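agent: user wants the structure for Carbohydrate kinase PfkB domain-containing protein from Thermanaerothrix daxensis. delegating to structure tool.
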Amino acid sequence: MFVSIGVVILDDIVLPNGRTQMGVLGGGATHAAMGMRLWEDRVGLLVTLGNDFPPDLEAQLRHAFLPEGLLHRSYPVLRAWQVFEADGTRHEVFRVDSSWVEQSVPAPEDWPSAFQDVQGVHLHCAPWEVPRWATFLRGQGVSTLLWEPWDAFCVPQNRERFAEYLGWVDIVSPNLGEGQALTGRQSPHEVMSALLAMGAKVVALRMGAQGSLVGKVGEEFIAIPPVSPACIVDVTGAGNAYCGGFLVGWVQQRNLRWAGYLGAVSASMALEQFGALYDWEEARPRALERLRQLTF
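agent: tool returned. relaying tokens verbatim.
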């Protein structure tokens, strides 16, 4: 079993051509959980739902993931503009008080008793909560923790704390822009080397259309090519989905290339529609074919 911890957001998407898509089910944890769901049948999504969360979307979440992780809270649902530039740059603007984002992430005491025999967890929580979550999850027997850091935390003044939190997790997966901002380095290889020097055990550096660079101390870095989707509808959440797939692949084989391949395929599936959820049973044969093309 695998679990993603974070937030659910309703995205109001504005594309470069002015087209909009409103009220789309998103959030980093949701996309990451779907990246896992593509490969695994037992996936939990531990999130809180606001008091005005649409019932039809909650029903979809309950169908996709173990329902015990969907917690109700009294505050309004998280909602954000996702505005995309022609070059792919994304601007996220929350339509609610940004402090609610941190407050909406579940705490260890919210962990459902139904979540048993969990092998891997994707953490998309407030950075300062990483030690508390890691301590709790190790006590639950979870062997592998992947931390996807919040973008706003990846700045030079947080390097010391970032390095501290790396000691609590097994894998860290920033995107290239976050890695550059944090380390002050520019090339992917330099960013990777800097993160490993800070204490990272395994790094999956996500680079969008350039694919990803994965590595660990003492091994050659591996460039993972992007996987072409049938069509690109919306890039929101592809990086989160990569994290989910990478975590499953790493737990399966403890092999960087294999984990990167599963991450890349998960990301490609996320690109093909608006919103995090899709028919994973229909998608699995296509995912396996894309994986086959990568491995041969």
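agent: one observation worth passing along. The first helix runs from residue 28 to 37.
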